[in-house]
Amino acid sequence: MGNEAIARGALEAGICFAAAYPGTPSTEIMEALAAVARDAGIYVEWSTNEKVAFEAAYAAAMSYVKSLTTMKHVGVNVAADILMSSAYAGVNAGFVIVSADDPGQHSSQNEQDNRWYGMHAHIPVVEPASPRDAYRLVKAAYMLSEKYKHPVLFRSTTRISHTRQPVTFEEDIPVEKKCKGRFDRDIERWVLVPAHGRKQKKRMMEVWRRVAEEEGVEPFIKIINPGMKKAIIAGGIAYSHVMEALEVLGKKDEYTVVKVSLPVPLPYKPILEVLKESQEILVVEELDPVLEMQVKKLAYENGVESKIHGKDYVPINGELDLDSVARSILSFEGREPVMPWKPLEPLHLEPPVPARPPVMCAGCPHRNTYYIVKTAANKAGLKDPIFTGDIGCYTLGYEPPFYTQMTSLEMGGSIGVAHGLSKVVDEPVIAVIGDSTFYHAGLPPSVNIIYNKGHAVILVLDNQYTAMTGHQPHPGTGLTAMGEPTVRVPIEKLLETMGYKTYVINPMNVKESINIVAEALKKYKEGEQVAIVSRMKCALQAVRKARKEGIKLPVYHIVEDKCTGCMVCVKLLACPAIVVPKGAKKPKILPELCVGCGLCAQVCPFKAIEVFKEGSPNWLEAWK
Q1: CATH 3.40.50.920: does it fit domain 221-332?
Q2: Where does CATH 3.30.70.20 sit in the chain?
Q3: Residues near 178 by Cβ (< 8 Å), separated by ≥ 6?
Q4: pTM to 2 decimal places
């Protein structure tokens, strides 16, 4: 996998320190490193958020220890403050920041192009075209960082991070590496007050100038088939699509192709030579015209009159692929973008493949919590609460029948937005946030509500893992990234310290939890600052533990004679284990999907749902 290739390249480069916050599509880089950390003799951590991860890894690089920090593209927004400052102060050892961008928004709220961060911060950006390329270029990025004593941004994308490709290792992981450093008390460098910052900016701009002037060589710039009248300049995954498109179009010998692996700042010398030799140039890149802008600027400043095209032919939204790039090339040539191959036809299967929209898993504790909170709100007389939402599995609460996520903007945004709404609307407000997200970005806005006299319920859904990205540990799990036991930081204690009257429920106990939450919401109506922590292990982890330890979970079924077909279990829970067969008037439970949480049995008004297969005597242990 591309992410594993990045991890291996970093290990071969000699890193000794790695820190990250999980986020798709970057997560597997740190997981791969954590899996071998002890054997490789390195330190790896899941930090509480991307800013903290950056700061920790940057501190190592300040102290002559090679380091790595990784995050998804929106995570760089969280770390932007220290990112900007790190470019001014520089580093004393190789320091690479991986930004895993997400063109096409496979798992993100936007598809921002983080090459702009390199431009904005004056940090060079290295961009691979394949997993194999990523493996080699990570090592080149560390050499670049060491050469200039400067941070380097390594931009991957979903298609690079999650594609698999054979990679032949070029060297061993070094046994001897510098894992203990020293801190130079260089006040003028590390203390960026204005007088110092102005001096450091001159250093930074000299690095910027030198990179653009000196690095126009492989592996950062590669020119294929020079001297042609037409040229294509492509960076990252776009280069791979270009080469494949030219091959299938039979045009490999008609174009000079420039592979750009250092798009920011663009090394100008080889690019200028291509501009002078070619009459027409097409710039192919995913998302924003970062390369195109620099190429056009270079042509203008040097009086080159070649015709330069880019986003007038190449899509600006979403991922590129073979088809879109081939069409762009044909349009650039003034030809009808008709492909020389038959377009793929949709498969027609019998029976047809059913639609599979995102849905909370069978047994998901969030389903229980949403049912409990909405029922308790009715019981407490809380009419039409606004539910502000956050980033996590629980975001699926926006769907029917829950409607418990009415906003989802960024990590921690549920609480901040809830505070603002509480100041300007009359409706009750409930901020829903996950456990990992609470540690990541929920603490400051929780304090803000108390300090600025806002009034919103904070509902923390604690399933004990960073579940959406693959069950990484966090401060509430009690384990580090390297599997070491550590101090558990209880969310309820943090909220109590801030001044919230805090209630903790186990959503597996539905009736008891409804009563507790109803009491909490009544206190909220009376003007108290209230927080609720709903704690129940992620169902996937419970099932894994049960399988590993030989624990049998109970399985429920619907007793047809008792069932009236009221569909309460279907309409209120939307559990994927409960289905209504075609033409049937009563639902049934699929035993292969049921994990025995028992929510449906507690909800059924006619007691028609019963245990069909008893679990082991200790089956509840799997959920603890």
Answers
A1: yes
A2: 547-623
A3: 14, 16, 64, 65, 66, 93
A4: 0.91
